[in-house]
Amino acid sequence: MNRRPVIGYLLFLALSFTVIYSFGCSVKAEEQKSSSSKTGQDNTLYILNSEKDAQGMKAMLETDDFRKIDEQWNHIHRARDYEKSNKYDLAEIEFKKAIEADKSDQGVSRRGLARIYEASGKYEQALEQINWLLERTSRPDVKADLLTRKQTLEKRLTDQT
After folding, report:
1. What is the CATH code of the structural domain delimited by 64-160?
2. What percent of the chain has pLDDT over 90?
């Protein structure tokens, strides 16, 4: 079964409800007569139109698919923070944990791994990630970008030897 439509639908719902979700929070149902925002004690911003919206959001946040996505993106955000601080070994660990959290959508994590491998001079490992991505993408614009990166990495490998 292709899970991308399910995951896409969950992400669409999250955006549609305009809720900024922070790690570990729980949705607090709150009746509101008009659209307004409220910040909870856990710094989560809720913009819900009704009790029904709140219940729907709570149900969505409690699904296994959403938990996997949430866990994956928490790892990705930590990895990017480490990457910005040039802590590539820690970024690598977090990107790999993101892949383990949700194996159905590895693109962002694999691109991150390719970046940190390239930045740390591990060109062969970066090429492995680029090749993995090339095998799985059908978008011409993404493919063109990946092919350019592949050529750059191959040149760096040649220059290195």
Report:
1. 1.25.40.10
2. 52
